[in-house]
Amino acid sequence: MSREIMQKNIARAQAYIDQNKESVKQGRMRQDYHFMAQTGWINDPNGLIFYKGKYHIFYQYNPYYGHWDYMHWGHAVSEDLVHWEHLPLALAPSETYDDHYRGGCFSGSAIEHDGKLFLMYTGCTNNGSGFEQTQCIAFSEDGIHFEKYEGNPVLAAPEGVPKHLFRDPKVWKNDGKYYMICGASKNNLAQALLYVSEDMLHWEFFSVLAQSRGEWGYMWECPDFFPLGDKYVLLVSPMGAGERTCVYMVGDFSYETGKFVWDVSGEADWGFDFYAPQSFVDGKGRRLVIGWANAWDWMPFWKDWGPAYREGWCGSFAVPRQVKMNADHTLSFEPVEELEVLRGEETVQENVLVEGGREDIPLQDGYAYELKMEVDLKETTASAFSLLLRCDQDRTRQTKITFDLKGQHMYFDRNQADGWSRGVSHSPLRLKEPGVFSVHIFVDTSSIEVFAEDYRTNHSCNVFADRSQDKNFLSVPAGNLKIRSMQTWSLKKTMDC
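The chain above was modelled as a monomer; its predicted structure follows.
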């Protein structure tokens, strides 16, 4: 066991962070209140857990460059999900099973066991015959300093599953036993494989929990499985499923058979930049999720490393969201109430009738703010309206969010946002007449998160607009729009890192 090597690699990475964090934090595209690392690249949130009275975030991390590479585990803690303290790195590559410059310590999860904090992660290496992914364990007495289990790896890919497509363990405990699912692929179909253990160290295959029928790709990354109400939820990020970045399935599960049968499915987020969310239960009994506010168009074989790369960083996390079950077994993903502490100056408008034919109705200026709007559908004749956000003075740069009330569709258009971002994400709207149509938006320096229909229909996308692009407008091309209420708050900066 190379404990000394891991500590040496952690110390080396920490020295680099300490030497470069001040220059990195000067980047003009850095977020104000969304979680970021101090330097370098982050992607999947890992090991989310409420442990000894604090929220812990671990994350897949390359501290050295603003692009994906040699993966470590970063670590931060919070008492309120808003203000975060960076801790020393938890894991660094050090062993034959996780030490490769294109591999390292990949995604996983955390659990308390025997009074210790256990991390289960994917070790990724290449010993000359292609990449190999195995499941490994590390543990800590104090929740900060970790050592790897001498018996690693504890689990290898089963027969028929490619060695490079077996990763992202999510572990939980039920009725005295430990269970784990892993994302996998077999015969070019995505799978979630279920394992069971008596002691967290020795694992046996239990079942294929669920498998794509061909509609949801060839690989399920970062699978998450949890009870909600009287149902179970499988949450996955599919590869090979087009623009879908995060899919959920709701159904029934038996611990006797290990089978999950779902009859409801949906999108956790329809945007381009919400990926690999992981859930956990906090001290209030809430099921919370935090997702990576990026996606794989950041990789150079699709596009490039993006504008933030030139500032020595890339990647942030979406705002924490609470998962709620609706009566029809669809899910809502609502931003946590703790975010209200960010609110500064408030602007309120009520019972406003907007006459159509205008595309330039000004809203509050800003590049980091929160907006809530309720539209009275009974008194609205407009077939559609749009929010034009993060505009420059002459509106040659803008992000356009359109709500097609008649056609019941939503569009997030960032093709004119910043000169780099591309694409129009779109989704159905399930409007029910008569009623109120709700919109809730969080805007930060480099991201926009839109929540609609009581948090059932959400779009999260990165937008690398200059901070001078702080103009915002309402557009109503035709008909009248009755706004019951519109509230806007400036939001305080918390990520001073």
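The longest strand covers residues 343-355.
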